[in-house]
Amino acid sequence: MLRLKFTKMHGIGNDYVHINCLTETVDDPAALSRRLSDRHFGIGGDGIILICPSETADFRMRIFNADGSEAQMCGNGIRSFGKYVFDRGLTDKTVLTIETLAGLKTLTLNVENGTVATVSVDMGAPILKAADIPVLSDTEDFIKKLITSGGETYTMTCVSMGNPHGVIFVDSVDALDLVQIGPPLENHTIFPERANIEFVECLNDETLKMRVWERGSGETLACGTGACAALVAAVLNGKAHRHATLLLRGGALDIDWDESTNHVFMTGPAEFVFDGDI
């Protein structure tokens, strides 16, 4: 039986099983993700990340959710990806380009004592056109619109950061039963490709508290693209400045929506957990 080497990593609690496909072969990543992500019978994680060669960038990242669906991007995952390739000697660059299904992303690795401490990611410009998110809308965008789900009515703003997000502002994120309200929102008929759903509590105009129901994975401790979408939505709703700290269950991210470039920048840590083979 063939053995597959892996590395478990996380970005503020958003945990993934990383596989170096420069040396390992994965024939069916969707099935493998379902197997390895199981927290009872597998390794446990929010999905798997494949580290692949690229013809257009330094590396290519493929990411599969716990249910086997392939995701376009993952903000926390791409930070751990950057730490992996530098700390494991696959590159000596501290500025990297990574090919993803959401396009090329640029990483700046902040190195301390020879290892990556934090990673800053240029997440690109937020997508606000409803058809491109995608979300069904009778207007060009989907900002501060009412949506009914599970017998409740919410005010939602939709943003894509390479993957679709629906952001809902609430008085208290801790009071929410995400297991109950998350699935019908993720699978709402307005989302042709399902969506990640962020619930955001504005503590002040520079500090936001967030919980997330991730498409294909359920509630996770953090979501990098979701944190970026949450800040963009908060700015569009007049609730925050363009730079803010996002407090998630797994830790904090610094998010900046640069006015001159229209790009969103995310900075946060990444950590190794353990190596193994299966």
Considering the chains and any ligands shown, give keywords for the structure.
278 residues, alpha+beta, 18-stranded mixed sheet, 16% helix
Main β-sheet, in a few words? 18 strands, mixed
- The strand count comes to 18
| Computed Rg | 18 Å
> What's the order of the H and E elements?
EEHEEEHEEEEEEHEEEHEEEE
| Sheet/helix structural class | alpha+beta
Q: What is the rounded distance between the termini?
A: 10 Å
| pLDDT < 50 runs, ≥5 residues | none
Helix content: 10-25%
Beta content: 35-45%
- Shape, principal axes of CA atoms: globular
Question: How confident overall, as mean pLDDT?
Answer: 97
Total DSSP helices: 4
What can you tell me about this protein's structure?
This protein has 278 residues and is an alpha+beta fold. It has helices at residues 29-37, 75-87, 178-186, 224-236; strands at residues 5-11, 14-20, 47-52, 59-65, 70-71, 95-100, 103-112, 115-122, 145-149, 152-160, 164-169, 196-204, 207-214, 218-220, 243-248, 251-257, 264-269, 271-277. The protein has an 18-stranded mixed sheet that branches. The N and C termini lie close together (10 Å).
